[in-house]
What we know:
The protein is an alpha+beta fold. The chain has two domains: 8-179, Chloramphenicol Acetyltransferase; 183-390 and 413-457, Nonribosomal peptide synthetase, condensation domain (Chloramphenicol Acetyltransferase, 2-Layer Sandwich). It contains twelve helices and 15 strands. α9 crosses α10 (330-349). The chain starts with 7 loop residues before the first strand and ends with a helix. The model is unreliable at 1-6, 200-208 and 308-315 (pLDDT under 50).
Amino acid sequence: xxxxxxxxxxxxxxxxxxxxxxxxxxxxxxxxxxxxxxxxxxxxxxxxxxxxxxxxxxxxxxxxxxxxxxxxxxxxxxxxxxxxxxxxxxxxxxxxxxxxxxxxxxxxxxxxxxxxxxxxxxxxxxxxxxxxxxxxxxxxxxxxxxxxxxxxxxxxxxxxxxxxxxxxxxxxxxxxxxxxxxxxxxxxxxxxxxxxxxxxxxxxxxxxxxxxxxxxxxxxxxxxxxxxxxxxxxxxxxxxxxxxxxxxxxxxxxxxxxxxxxxxxxxxxxxxxxxxxxxxxxxxxxxxxxxxxxxxxxxxxxxxxxxxxxxxxxxxxxxxxxxxxxxxxxxxxxxxxxxxxxxxxxxxxxxxxxxxxxxxxxxxxxxxxxxxxxxxxxxxxxxxxxxxxxxxxxxxxxxxxxxxxxxxxxxxxxxxxxxxxxxxxxxxxxxxxxxxxxxxxxxxxxxxxxxxxxxxxx
Length: 458
């Protein structure tokens, strides 16, 4: 059998898991949304002209020209020789008055739909009619093609620093050489971390002695150290059940200087303040639902641990943070978060990169395997994911339109019905909340509750 190896590339084991994980209720694509204001003097045909020019780029670059094929039961990526750009790029308009509420509802619906596996696994939507004369761009791409961080990077690369510059659409951009920093940021992708944890035991071989020592020490420490967060203490909540296929997306921006000022006041990092905002919001949301557990919620946080410019040692780890949602006092909650995060950082500081990855896998493989198999066990390692993706510095433009905000649209899975991903853009932190619509009703309330949480800290 001729597999035409020169034009076909086997799907990697990790990426294959993303394909196997996908079910009707569990789409495995990541996305991004940006809002933009057309340049002054833009005519009524401004968006039409943008679309016309974009459609001229009908020869996409990898991975946008790759589709799945199966040969002898093996999955490959192969260039789609029947590629049709009109099956991937769509022009939509919101009905008047085109409020942001309607835009987010539309993105929720688009993000709920599975990508067609007979075609390259991506879609791009240009949406006009947003109030204030604005436009929006929503794109999604399967996690088997790119990780969540790379998807945001692609969206960013499809923009420019100057309003007068034009740029190819993201599907036609030349491939960027992968750097060491790209590797670090890829490991900040929480969904990829979960999947790799399901395969994690093989990573332990070279670091067994140190890892076993740390695992044994952690089990002992769990009984003595209130700041240590174990994989056995997350309470069962409404966030942790099987999900439906419907999604609800909510997004909002907060000034980065405001969050930094709150951190300076309390000797906390930006990530500490973000987690405290999430803690307050979840506490209030669950109280509304009469579903606040007595035990504190635990969140999974992909976090960079590098403290200098060296190349050796640990760089990235997945930590578990105690959100202190059982505490009514916001300052006590913040202190609880800071101590649990520092406890994890101190633990990983004793290990090199290989040992820290092996340790994470050892402590969370059972959880990852259960998630991969879609089996909701009686316990789980964490209640939700909170992830901070590095973003763009300075203003960006999309073919003359000034971008106001860039919001991540991530993935939820059986057992983890809420994902809060944020990214920095210009002078703001942009929050993107995605949840199962059935499991997390009135998700948009969390936006106000996040604001309330920041005000509490201030």
